[in-house]
Write a structure and sequence with these properties.
Blueprint (H helix, E strand, L loop, with lengths): L2 H16 L4 H17 L7 H34 L8 E6 L5 H13 L3 E6 L5 E6 L5 H20 L1
Helix pairs in contact: 1-2, 3-5, 4-5
Length: 158
């Protein structure tokens, strides 16, 4: 049986035992099921990959939320202060991520971050065009997106 499916079954069983079929009840059951499966790792060969993948997805979510807060503060500060530091521009970013799902995730995460907007991806899927509110240093912005969002997505999809 797939470890993820087993974890879902444990979450539903927890919700049934507690009589709490809410999102919170299922999340608590999922967390407790994950802990139980982690302790029982020797019984399930190959489950290390599952826990590594879950960790990478949690990392992607947490780091994206951090970027969301930081960029929101930066945009709000620029809007509310008298001297504007915004230097909008369009930059091209070569993509290392492969596959439609990876490209979709990178483009959407960039668009969801305040101050940036994904404009287009070339037909071959190798270049992304991004409109940035703070594009005064295109190389630094490109490196930030490649070492941030794109790398996190590549790790999560491995």
């Amino acid at each position: 049986m797939n470890i993820f499916t087993l974890n879902i079954v444990l979450a539903v069983a927890w919700a049934a035992l507690t009589g709490n079929f809410t999102l919170t009840g299922l999340l608590v059951g999922f967390a407790l099921g994950s802990a139980a499966l982690y302790l029982a790792k020797p019984l399930f060969p190959g489950c290390d990959r599952y826990f590594n993948r879950v960790w990478r997805w949690v990392k992607l979510c947490v780091l994206f939320l951090y970027e969301l807060v930081v960029s929101s503060v930066q945009v709000v500060w620029d809007v509310l202060t008298p001297q504007h530091k915004a230097r909008p521009g369009v930059i091209s970013m070569p993509l290392d991520v492969e596959g439609e799902m990876g490209i979709l995730m990178v483009t959407n995460l960039i668009s969801l971050t305040p101050g940036t907007l994904s404009l287009d991806v070339t037909d071959d899927g190798k270049t992304l065009y991004v409109h940035a509110m703070f594009a005064d240093d295109p190389e630094a912005l490109r490196a930030q997106m490649k070492n941030g969002m794109e790398r996190w997505v590549i790790e999560a999809l491995e």
